[in-house]
Write a structure and sequence with these properties.
The structure holds two protein chains of two kinds. By secondary structure, chain A is an all-alpha fold. By secondary structure, chain B is an alpha+beta fold. The relative contact order of chain B is 0.13. The longest helix of chain B has 33 residues. Classes of the chains: A mainly alpha, B alpha+beta.
Chain lengths: 329, 423
């Protein structure tokens, strides 16, 4: 067992691109679920909107990278409008079903053969971030002790401040009058409506804001892989983000970052530890496990974490039980 | 859900390779695998075809690359860069008895992209009939699919109606039936009919246990509906991957009635197993409707769906009835899964990929309305199959999900739902 590798890899994941984009995705979900009480189970759709908005604009239509970034965000806003229009008048369980369905629609359309020429099909799209990586001031040499590659360091140096900005925006908005209305909608929508507020429009704004955060997550994800692939934006993306948000603490500004660093770190630790233990022959022979199944165990772990958190600690690490939106109304 | 490839980070050992595109950023490649698809639908019968020459020409007709498939039927042709290409398969190099439907494929390559090409070798039953015949056949296929969707969605709707739980793990009950049947049938070698009956009973028992040991206690300690929904998502994710762990990612058929010859009814052809399956569906659907209408427990289920408090105060033992709902709902879901696998074989994610169709079905029928699921399931199943006449097969589920969203827009309470349900 190479404990050095295990801890280095865990540390790499905990502050690396994965933790970064899951923090962004969870920050978006936090606006939706945590503050507004909108049960969005399709955050992957917003991630895909951002990532594909960027990649398609650059690769297929030859738009410049920087303009394409805004196109990605614009696509996610349009998506929020399209999704919100039929569902925001309805009860929250409808929103959950429709957002899940929308994410699946987008994934199926993007990976279909019919639109391969534009969207890249199952092969995805590559080489859209060159303009960004050309600006990379970091050159060779490993950045000890975590040994990130230079281009990863460059991405992280840009992406973590983005997370800080997102959290700052959340913090300022949620203590503004707008934030108070949104939180009041979570607590009792009828009461807010009877005070003369247009709750529908407030919910729509919240959906757009969290959607833009989700799109940023998708963009960081795409940049870290240097590739967009339809199956990256499946339910796994959404549910990992939901788990991250709940673990950190719903309706807590820094919850998504805390949840992401811990959860992605733990997932990576589990992953590398299991692989090492299998290689070292530490697992008794009667246990039906091999290296190829470690990725599956990760996902079982994500599911189990969701269940156990919701049962035993719905407020997560930082949350306040009184402010947990996920409850009956 | 997609197959869980490890999308997380790169190999932790390597530290020096750059992610910033391939060595030559404009170079791309095409690759693919030639498989003889044989007559059956089952994928493990496919045989790799080696030694076939494939040539790629660029838009000026100049040869850009060529390769022969290896012993695994694989080929990979590096290409100089972006552009429009035509891949040609040399038919003379195909072994005897193997034919190709279309020996030329045109494709475009972006900078640094790789493409996968598909040549359809000996593709089974390539339809050359007109739209009308195709429509009739898909009408028949859709009837079958609609009936089994109706069967599988009854439980989802009744569980929602009686407990308020939107159970995202219902698809896993569908898969459970199919996998149990596979296990009895293929591993233990019992006949499929016996295996099917046992699988339905076993899944029903699991449903009962789930309520007795998991959902029931959660309900009694006052966990909210939204929290229960998130829990059901976690359960779905964990169980789906548990299936993948135990059953594996391959699609596998039952031992019996595999390549049943279809009976020809003029323009439409059907294997007997589908006819019997459809009759079975019909029988159970009528039985469910009758049970809901006539039996004490069925009436109690509808009463609880209408108003839980009124039902409880009129002396109905709510917890006991809910347990029956789980028992029957899980059993019917399992039956749906087995009948689905009878024509499509067993796969670990068959239920989870059906889940959104089930939601579309019960939303269309009216969330929580007892008979809504029967109507909604049938309509959605029929719609999905028939739409495949005009829509590419890979996108046919998209149509159903769009219908789901349109229904919410126009009549959110569904066909049979009560107006105040949506509040």
């Amino acid at each position: 067992m190479d404990w050095g590798l295990i801890f280095r890899s865990t540390g790499q994941a905990a502050i690396g691109p994965d933790a970064c984009y899951y923090a962004l995705a969870a920050a978006g979900l936090n606006v939706h679920i945590g503050y507004t009480g909108l049960l969005n189970f399709g955050q992957a759709a917003f991630g895909a909107a951002g990532a594909y908005g960027l990649a398609v604009a650059v690769v297929t239509y030859g738009v410049s990278f920087w303009a394409a970034l805004f196109i990605g965000l614009l696509v996610s806003i349009v998506l929020a409008l399209v999704l919100g229009f039929p569902t925001l008048r309805l009860r929250t369980d409808y929103l959950a079903i429709v957002t899940l369905a929308a994410a699946e629609i987008i994934r199926l359309v993007v990976r279909s053969v019919r639109y391969t020429a534009t969207l890249g099909g199952t092969d995805g799209l590559q080489a859209f971030g060159d303009a960004f990586f050309r600006l990379n001031p970091f050159d060779g040499g490993s950045y000890t002790p975590l040994e990130f590659r230079p281009d990863q360091v460059w991405l992280l140096v840009c992406a973590w401040p983005l997370v800080v900005v997102v959290l700052l925006v959340t913090f300022l908005l949620m203590r503004s009058p707008w934030g108070r209305v949104v939180k009041a909608i979570r607590e009792d929508e009828d009461a807010v409506r009877s005070l003369g507020k247009n709750t529908y429009w407030y919910k729509m704004q919240s959906l757009m804001l969290g959607g833009v955060f989700g799109a940023l997550a998708g963009i960081v994800f795409a940049m870290s892989k240097q590739s967009v692939n339809p199956d990256d934006y499946g339910t796994r993306f959404t549910f990992t983000a939901v788990a991250v948000m709940i673990l950190g603490g719903t309706a807590r500004v820094v919850g998504p970052v805390v949840g992401s660093v811990i959860f992605i770190g733990v997932l990576q630790f589990l992953d590398v530890f299991l692989r090492q233990a299998i290689d070292a022959g530490l697992i008794p022979g009667w246990v039906p496990i091999d290296v190829n199944k470690v990725a599956i165990i990760r996902l079982i772990f994500v599911g189990a974490t969701l269940v156990l958190l919701m049962i035993y600690r719905p407020q997560g690490i930082l949350g306040d039980r009184r402010e947990v939106a996920i409850r009956d109304r | 859900m997609a197959a869980p490839a490890a999308a997380q980070t790169e190999d932790p050992g390597s530290t020096s390779t750059t992610v910033g595109a391939a060595p030559d950023p404009s170079a791309g490649a095409v690759r693919g695998r030639l498989l003889d698809l044989k007559e059956t639908d089952a994928s493990e019968d496919d045989v790799p075809v080696p030694g076939v020459r494939i040539t790629v020409e660029d838009s000026d007709g100049q040869e850009a690359g060529t390769a022969e498939t290896d012993s695994g039927g694989l080929f990979r042709i590096p290409l100089p860069g972006e552009g429009t290409y035509t891949a040609k398969l040399d038919e003379d190099s195909l072994p005897d008895g193997v034919s190709v439907a279309d020996d030329e494929i045109e494709f475009t390559l972006g900078p640094g992209q790789s493409r996968t090409l598909l040549f359809a070798l000996n593709a089974p039953n390539r339809r050359t009939e007109g739209k009308v015949d195709l429509f009739l056949q898909s009408l028949v296929d859709g009837t079958y699919f609609g009936l089994l969707l109706a069967l599988a969605s009854v439980g989802l709707s009744l569980i929602y109606g009686t407990t308020g739980l939107v159970n995202f793990a219902h698809g896993e009950l569908v898969t459970m039936g199919a996998i149990f049947a596979f296990w009895f049938n293929q591993t233990l070698g019992w006949p499929l009919i016996l295996s099917g009956v046992l699988a339905v009973l076993a899944t029903g028992a699991v449903g009962w246990l789930l309520d007795a040991a998991f959902w029931g206690p959660l309900r009694r300690r006052g966990t909210g509906n939204t929290a229960l929904m998130v829990i059901s998502i976690g359960v779905a994710l964990a169980v789906l991957n548990l299936y993948l762990y135990v059953f594996g990612g391959r699609t596998r058929p039952y031992a019996d009635y595999r390549a049943q010859p279809a009976i020809d009814f003029g323009t439409v052809s059907l294997p007997p197993k589908r006819i019997i399956g459809a009759l079975l569906c019909l029988f159970f659907l009528v039985a469910v409707a009758t049970a809901l209408q006539r039996t004490r427990t069925g009436k109690a289920m509808r009463a609880i769906s209408d108003s839980r408090d009124l039902a409880a105060s009129s002396g109905i033992n709510v917890d006991r009835v809910i347990r029956f709902v789980w028992l029957f709902g899980a059993g019917l879901a399992a039956l749906g899964g087995i009948l689905f696998s009878l024509s499509q074989d067993v796969n670990f994610e068959q239920g989870s990929s059906m889940l959104l169709l089930l939601f579309a079905a019960i939303t269309l029928g009216g969330l929580g309305a007892a008979y809504g699921a029967l109507i909604g399931g049938f309509v959605i199943g029929l719609f999905v199959s028939v739409s495949a006449v005009w829509v590419p097969t890979e996108l046919k589920n998209v149509g159903a999900l769009v219908v789901l969203i349109l229904v919410l827009l126009v009549r959110p309470q569904g066909i049979l739902g009560a107006r105040e349900r949506i509040g």
